[in-house]
Amino acid sequence: MIAFAIIGPDGIPTGGGIRRTLPEGAVPLTAPFTTADLPRLRWQDGVWVERVDLTPDPTPDPEAFAAAQLARARLDAVDRINAATDAFRRRFYTDITGQDALYLEKRAEALAYVREAEESGEPKDLADYPLIANEIGVTAPTPWQLAQIWLHLSGAFKSIGAATERPRQIALNAVALARDQDELFTIQDTFTQALSRLLQQDL
Description:
2 domains; 3-stranded antiparallel beta sheet; 5 strands; mainly alpha; two-stranded antiparallel ribbon
């Protein structure tokens, strides 16, 4: 996981988070700094430095400071949970631009093909099924077999999505209610264990 910041023209962070890969245009946070330190940092000449333009609060409010720290920690926890879910799902989904939409189109075409084949017999040509026509001989030798493969994969993707979405939502709800960072660590650990158990199941 990579901690990062989005930098404004003056080098002052305008946002940040933690992701599996570094977002385009972001700057990585190097040790010992974390995303909790962003409000007091500036990116200057290729390195992180402490800001000297900040006016110290003469009467700091410990409760407000603790609340701000917890809020940032919650955001980091959400980033980690979503990134872990993303990494898990990538084990099964092809991660290229537009692939999710293509999966849906393949499922729709497979359903239509099977419906026509069962009701009227297999069609004489594949003019109405361009995706099937394009993949015959690559993934499967016949339109019927290809349609069945796509429907099976669609069912598997749905199962994976459902299996990961429940623990993800439970974890995110718990993060929103967490009272301290120790509780956040426990939530993330519980979520990681839940994903590990899913790997042992036949999804």
